[in-house]
Amino acid sequence: MESYALPLISGPGAIGVVIGMSERTTEMGDYIGCLFGIVLLGLMLYLCLILGEPLAKRAGSHGLGALNRVLGFFMLAIAVQFIADGLFDLVKQAAPNLLH
């Protein structure tokens, strides 16, 4: 079984999300939650890679197109949240009295 998806799974996007989310952790519970999320994602990813081909055949081109759009929307939402957080932090540092 060949695995062509590995570079996309562990690429810069995945690393960026882990770095961005780990920046918000402050307590041990946060770290445990992140670790639990990573393990859960790993298990889900394993199942997707094992069951991906049979599910893709069953879903067909229309189902895969819909799934692609939904996942693209989720990625857009994460990107917008990162940009908004960065802009708010920038404004807080540049003009601390502006946002109370």
Average pLDDT rating: 82
User: Number of DSSP helices?
Assistant: 3
Instruction: State Rg.
Output: 18 Å
Strand portion, in percent?
A: under 5%
Proportion of residues in helical segments = over 70%
In whole angstroms, how far apart are the ends? 56 Å
- What does the largest sheet look like? none
Identify the overall geometry.
Answer: flat
| Structural category | mainly alpha
**Unreliable residue runs:** none
Counted beta strands: 0
User: Helix and strand string, N-terminal first?
Assistant: HHH
Number of domains: 1
Family: Belongs to the UPF0056 (MarC) family.
Keywords: Cell membrane, Membrane, Transmembrane, Transmembrane helix
Pfam family, one: MarC
Subcellular location: Cell membrane
Written overview of the protein:
The chain is mostly helical. It has one domain. The chain is built from three helices and no strands. The chain is flat. The model has no long low-confidence stretch (mean pLDDT 82).
Summarize this structure as a short list of keywords or feature phrases:
single chain; 100 residues; flat; transmembrane; Multi_antbiot-R_MarC; cell membrane; membrane; UPF0056 membrane protein
